[in-house]
Amino acid sequence: MTTLDILQFPDPRLRTKAAEVTVFDDGLRQLVEDMYETMYAANGVGLAATQVNVHKQVLVADMSEERDQRMALVNPRIVARQGEQVYQEGCLSFPGIYADVTRALAVVVEAQDVDGQPVRLELEGPLAVCIQHEMDHLAGKVFVDHLSGLKRSILLKRLEKQRKAATA
Ligand code: GNR
Ligand code: NI
Asked: Quick one: DSSP state of residue 116?
């Protein structure tokens, strides 16, 4: 297993739209294993392949306290959404930055597992937030895109400041 480097905003590669996965082989299984390793090492609750510079529609998540409830989705699509929730989000591509984002409260997701088998999930609450956040990454979108211009610019200035302080 390998820990992969996570792209940091504003790396333009975070804007890449991921391609559909058509081949379910050992390479895909290896990618998913390395993504779990990377997510757990970074103490994240989710990770999109985009963030490790692999532009395929693959995401992993684990929102459990015990860090033992792995979920890997390939080619995920939201087929239904309901309600609204506001949740304070963070992102491994924006270390130290947090912001409230409004998203659907519940979503129905159709995807495939690593073997290509179809899966259908009804998610709500924090797990629904996480999957929507990861699916955004696969579309080249990041959480601050959901904020108003003013909020976004304040947060991005803060990110800059923290980086300068860290490298000074
Ligand atoms: O680790 C993460 N925490 C988190 C918290 C609230 C909402 C979404 C997330 S996802 C994030 C990991 C990450 O950047 N995934 O893309
Ligand atoms: Ni993220």
From this structure: S
Ligand 1 centre and the CA of 88: distance in Å? 10
Whole-number Å distance between alpha carbons of 125 and 103: 10
CATH number of domain containing 134: 3.90.45.10
How many independent structural domains does the chain possess? 1
- Over the stretch 26-83, which tens digit does the pLDDT of each residue have? 999 999 999 999 999 999 999 999 999 999 999 999 999 999 999 999 999 999 999 9
Cβ proximity of 26 and 34 under 8 Å: no
Range of the domain at 93: 12-167
pTM beyond 0.70, yes or no: yes
Distance (angstroms) between ligand 2 centre and the Cα of 118 equals 25
